[in-house]
Amino acid sequence: MPSYRAKRERLWPLAAATLALLAWAPLQASAAEQPRIASINLCTDQLLVTLADPEQILGLSPYARDPFRSWDKDKATAFRLLSGEAEDVLALKPDVVVAGRFTKRATRELLKDKGLKVTEFDPARSLDDVKKQLRQMGALVKHPERAEAEIAKLDSAIAQAHAAVQRKPLRVLAVSRRGWVSGGENLTTSLLSAVGLRNAGGELGLKAGGFASLEAIVTLRPDLLLVTDSTDFAEDEGRAFLLHPALEKFYPASKRLVLPERLTACGGPTMVEALDRLAAEISRVAP
Predict the structure, then answer these.
(1) Is the pLDDT score of 21 beyond 60?
(2) What range does the record give for the signal peptide (predicted)?
């Protein structure tokens, strides 16, 4: 008959395995509870890739790898690209679909009609809105601590940007293709304010934004222009507007702040780099 010691030694591996299983079970259950998410909007792409676990991401919008508009195009290569239509999203059977408030309405409504949960994000019009979006996505993917870490980075970038604040509040006009001007009530205004600059677009009577003539821009006489690139090649008429001799005369490179579109197309984690870049540009053009 086996001794007590022999029985104990024989049962010990089984007990250890049982304890390991009990410890592993909650982790497995926790992983199973993480929602599987598809994104059909460029801005929700960036929030999702930053805050979610890779295995939670079923697919991203068609623009996720766009080199001009996507801030995290390299990270996006690890994930499936969706068409932006409802069919391929339905095939994935996600727990949640994230979209922008202005993402194609017919697609959003069809997904809802098919029983999918669609969470919509409003456009960020200020740095405070950016923080709200980070928290919204952090709660959705069940990683609120990651959202708070990103907000801490943003607060740090804002604090550093204040070091570049101009004593005189220079007036800046954000101009892009064909004379599109950023108005006074948007994310650009919030970014400029963080570094002590004033968006002159509001002086043209524009809220969110709109087109302005060359004459209107020259007459407004902002101190600086904010543009998305510094190239001197006009590949089309839209780009040629920014290279017009009148603008070139009054606003050479020394009077143009350059902030790539991929940093301002959305709010979210891009704002840290946008603030750093803007502060560096102010130092470059400062007299």
Answers:
(1) no
(2) 1-31
